[in-house]
Amino acid sequence: MKQKLLLISFVLIAFASNLKAQSKSIITWKQATSGGYTYKYVTGDPTHSRFYVLKNGLTVILSPTNKQPRIQAYIAVKAGSKTDPADHTGLAHYLEHMMFKGTDKFGTTDWTKEKPYLDKIDALYEQYNSTKDEAKRKEIYKEIDKTSGEAAKVSIANEYDKMMASMGGQNSNAFTSFEQTVYTEDIPSSSIDKFLTMQAERFRNPIMRIFHTELEAVYEEKNRTLDDDSRKVNEAMFAALFPNNNYGKQTTIGTIEHLKNPSLNAIRNYYYTYYVPNNMGVVLSGDFNPDIVIKKVDDHFSYMKAKPIPAYTFEPEQTIVSPIKRDVYGPNPENLTIAFRFPGASTRDARLLDLMGSMLTNGKAGLFDLDLVKKQKLLSAFAGDYTLKDYSVLLLRGNPVKGQSLDEVKDLMLAEISKLRKGEFSDDLITSIVNNAKKDKIIDNESYVNRANNLMSDFTSGVDWRTDIATINELSKITKPQIVAFANKYLNENDYVIVYKHQGEDKNIIKVEKPAITPVEVNATSQSEYLKKINSIPSTAVKPVWLDYQKDIQRAKAGNIDVLAVQNKDNSIFRLYYRYDMGSWNNKLLPIAAQYLQFLGTKTKTAEDFSKAFYKLAASFNQNQIITTGTEITQVSFNGLQENFIATAQLYEDLLANCQPDEKALAGLKTRLKRARDNAKLNKATIAAGLRSYAQYGPSNPFNYALSDDELDAITADDLVKILHSLNNYKHTILYYGPQTAMQTALTLSKVHKTPAAFTPYPAKKQFTRIANTGNQVLFANYDMVQAEIYWIRNENEYNPAQTPEVELFNNYFGTSGFTSIVLQNIREAKGLAYSAYAIYAAPVKKDDRNYFLGYVGTQADKLNDAIKAMNELLNTLPESEKGVTDARDNIRKSLETERITQEDILFNYLAAQRMGLNYDARKTIFNSLDKINFATIKNFHSTQLKDKPYTYCIVASDKRVSDNDLKKYGELIKPDMKQIFGY
């Protein structure tokens, strides 16, 4: 034991010395010129990011990295709901939606013909906005609906998305928050010219077309928030914290009154006010030459003209002199939120706030982690910072165990805050946090997507990138007395907002009523001349890279265990996995034992000692749990710094081999599990998952294959410890990604990871078989909500790898490609029936199992019949578009060309292929088969697999809003109770 502690101390001293050496280097802004452009950069920045400001004021941030031939792009506007007019809340979010509808050059087949209709719709909405008489409003809306239908005949829905898909774009989206609206794309680097041409045009003259169906999608989004208890808690918290600032006075999605009374003129005025270059930033991270790309950005966006931006002003918030209490009600489990107000994101105090959050919760050694979660006083507890430009928030959230009041949760969390103020925390906690922050920063910089996200976030919130880079060095100098002083300055006993989330009916919900909408044309086969121009822009050919499992994976033996490794030649991070081909289907107690381990110690160290030691080593686990179990796979996982590799492995092996039964910990775990099981029955997503499993496997299914209440009560500490002690006796594979070779890893682990000469056979596995659909059924679960969640389930034929290419193309065309898919175009764009809708023909995770079909629509309960009808029409009649098939084919091809499976993902791809009975990279087969597939192929697939077939409808909705008579129209109605769904 002394030897292990000496080793831990040694690596910590080395780590601290390294940080000290780094802190001596001055991190500062510098200026340089290259490629004819002057830019700023931060010395010591591992991302090598360049910051340009063009002549018109547009900020351009470029962070080159050649790990993958792709670029994450953000076009960010420093305007969000905070700058919405008080009489038109939700406006910034509206505009975000409309920025996907095109300009006078694309999104239309005939702008000259379309424009008079759109002008008329503008005027009608102004009348509608100002009219109070409901009868007159309905007449105006009928005219809006009629005129919109005429305009839609010459519009092209989703042409923007089609353009992005055809160039290999992924994750095309946008989001609006308090002070930012951000448009996001992930594109092949070879398509940069197409992308910039497209974006420059997009922001030149956005046209508010197809507005009333998009407005209905926003209504649906609003209704989703009415069913989202956590969002209601946050809104109540912000309203109480910021009565003077629009953080609290307005919500991002807006009020129902303003949603019902939109003004296109107000939206357009907002665009002209805030969508100006000196208020915008283009952030690109990925595979490119910044000298070349900056000129391209300048050439495309130089047309934009700078103009003054209205300053946002507000009265400073007054000090809270006594706790401000709010109550929120809803069907989800109860919880408690406490929020303290702090200065804005650009301040030093906001950076210390992040440290404060880590001192309370970091997954292992924070005060909440050790005192509340590890000791099982709460079901869960979280603390974290929410930084915004004007103010920041320290947010505390606790979930009670069974039989515990929310006031008891409050007292427990505030007692930990009191410990911070008194300095009652470990002296080395700050050092451990800094060590973990360093490791997390290295991991963060591995991803071109994370780089871009961090740069964009700092830009929109006004944080200096230099301070971001210098934060670790700055935090390493923070002392315990400074933390105590900081806590006493801001975390006063009465200076907070507290929100009680109660489980119960929310009587204040007023849902947005559905308007009468006539489905509009989406013109899926049409194409503007501008799109043809975009497609004609040449792009550099990219050669795809397929995995070769023999060449890409190193192999070795650690005793009788296979070691599969991929070497990390970029940094000092390692990731280690022990993978067992058994799970809860082999032993129902295995997941319980995996959870139990975190609460156990040995004869020489407590559970808290182990948590602190892992955290000091900057060793992280998957989901903060060392062992995770699925139905058929169990996995032990770590990531950390290679210098701490052996110490991390030794610490784990000590815990696993020598953990001691702890009856008190088991009693606490049982209480936690019972509360978690009760909470699961209050979660609509979990209930829906249970219905889907019931639909695929019948009344006895994987979802409800769970311990009964009696079985849970009967578990003993010895039962669980026996499982843990014997875990290494079962066959498993070691997976490693890190600086070492497979042979080096095997030699290292063979000294500490002991296994028997012969492995114990796995326990017999429970078998589940997907049932055949012989007729339509409806599985219904009652849930107090505004929306209805509808799923279509059908079990299909056995998996056949030869079918993979046509399945991939069908899915992309039909239901998985977002706004370019047939499903979303018809259900959302044409009919305004949903905010979200998709469909997928899915392969199983292992050979000799059956494929299955899954469709989904989330809609208002009063649109349930319309939504089901719309999806069923698509299941029985596949709309034809050769252009759509071509776009889907191009998107798949270009995505595959630029996809690079790297790091430990190579190992998991290999193991997934093994489970499917494959010894090759299936992507190559898809790529080589694409040109052989056309619309006739996928139409035949649709006819064979989906058309006129029976389905099981899984519906979660309120029985007050959905009638049995409606449900029975779609098949035999079955209403399983919660015990039938959950198995307990």
- Indicate the CATH architecture of the largest domain: 2-Layer Sandwich
Radius of gyration: 29 Å
The tally of helices reads 38
Helix/strand/pairing class, anyone?
A: alpha+beta
Described by strand count, sense and barrel closure, the largest sheet is: 6 strands, mixed
Give the percentage of residues in beta strands.
15-25%
Summed up, the domain count is 5
Supply the CATH class of the largest domain. Alpha Beta
CATH topology-level name of the largest domain: Cytochrome Bc1 Complex, Chain A, domain 1
Helical fraction equals 40-55%
Number of strands: 25
What is the approximate shape? globular
Structural features, described:
It is a single chain. Helix 16 packs antiparallel against helix 18 (465-476). The longest helix is centred in the N-terminal third of the chain and has 23 residues, at 2-24. Helices cover 44% and strands 18% of the residues. The strands form five sheets. A six-stranded mixed beta sheet has the order 3-4-8-5-7-6, sandwiched between helices. A hairpin with a 2-residue loop joins strand 1 (29-34) and strand 2 (37-42). The chain has 38 helices and 25 strands. It has 984 residues and is an alpha+beta fold. It has five domains: 2-42; 50-313 and 512-536, Cytochrome Bc1 Complex, Chain A, domain 1, CATH 3.30.830; 324-503, Metalloenzyme, LuxS/M16 peptidase-like (Cytochrome Bc1 Complex, Chain A, domain 1, 2-Layer Sandwich), CATH 3.30.830; 549-750, Cytochrome Bc1 Complex, Chain A, domain 1 (2-Layer Sandwich); 777-982, Metalloenzyme, LuxS/M16 peptidase-like (Cytochrome Bc1 Complex, Chain A, domain 1), CATH 3.30.830.10. The chain starts with a helix and ends with a helix.
